[in-house]
Amino acid sequence: MIVALLVNAASGKGRASRVEQDLAALGAEIRRAGDEDQLRAAAVGADRVAVAGGDGSVAPAAAVAASAGLPLAVMPCGTANDFVRALGLPEDVDAACRLAVRGERLRSLELGHMNGRPFVNVANGGLAAAAARHAAPLKPRLGRLAYPAGAIWAGAIQRPRRCRVRCEGRLVFEGAVWQVTVASSGAFGGGSSIGPADATDGVLDVAVIPAGPRLRLAQHAWGMRSGRITAQREVRHERGSTVQVEGGLDYNVDGEIVRAATAEFTVEPGAFTLVAG
Q1: Is residue 227 situated within a structural domain?
Q2: Pairing verdict, β 122-126 and 170-183
Q3: pLDDT grade, residue 151 (50/70/90)?
Q4: Within a 10 A sphere around the Cβ of 270, how many other Cβ atoms?
Q5: pTM of the predicted model, to two decimals?
Q6: pLDDT bucket at 85, cuts 50 / 70 / 90
Q7: 274 inside domain
Q8: Mean pLDDT score, 38-50
Q9: pLDDT above 70 (res 12)
Q10: Is the confidence at residue 147, as pLDDT, over 60?
Q11: 3-state DSSP helix/strand/coil percent for the chain, to nearest 5?
Q12: In a shared domain, residues 243 and 122
């Protein structure tokens, strides 16, 4: 089996760099790539695309797998690894390597896009982006606990931002928000989720948390950790294949911070297949 492997060497304290050896020991021929362009070239004539890195590395690899018509295997070498947990994949890297080479069961998944940028989990605008910034320096010491710590810090100092949200062209919210989440798998923040989101249904889920008393943020945080945020009365939940958010927000897009005055979201149903079992 020929595997085109995208490696994010900065992920997992160097664990990602050892995945190439692990896959080769299982009998795979490896074509290693360090970025999306290299991966696209490596995928020509390959049997499978694989990625060793954190959540931010999965979507670019998924986009290459989609364009090449090849299955994608994921070795979770990041801090949060929200994607593999959401999809029920092995969190142990050795088990993930075995699945990458020997797995035969495939799942068809959608691929989200924000202004053309692919994502597989969520694009979180507002408070979550600030939380990710505060969490970043804490990751080496706290691991996944850095995410709730960053959220507490951000919740204490950030202010709501005004925006306008459209879903399928309909105006669904206008005003000040703590957070706007556009979700595919719905997983983020080392264990939080937009519960109803489903990466196999071909539509995006949108959760808008309107501005309100700062003390209510604890309730919203519980809702995200429990996957029940969309059940909270003041939270607006919509679903659709196109979403537009107008207003200057910072977004946490699968762990990468992106700023956009206007964000256009689309989804490709069944864009790629995942090696799942």
Answers
A1: yes
A2: antiparallel
A3: low
A4: 13
A5: 0.91
A6: very high
A7: no
A8: 98
A9: no
A10: no
A11: 35, 40, 25
A12: yes
CATH number for the domain spanning 82: value is: 3.40.50.10330
Which among 61, 67, 72 has a CA at the least distance from the CA of 11? Answer: 61
The Cα 263–Cα 189 span in angstroms is 21
List Cβ neighbours of 3 (8 Å cut-off, separation of 6 or more): 23, 28, 29, 30, 31, 46, 47, 48, 49, 50, 73, 100, 101
pLDDT at 13: 59
Tell me, what amino acid is at 60? P
DSSP assignment of 209-229 equals EE---GGGHHHHHHHHHHT-G
Do residues 24 and 56 both lie within one domain? yes
**Of 160 and 32, more confident:** 32
Euclidean distance between the first and the last CA atom of the chain, given in angstroms as a whole number: 17
Looking at the predicted structure, is the pLDDT value of residue 131 above 70?
no
Structural domain contains residue 111? no
| Structural domain that includes position 229 | 117-269
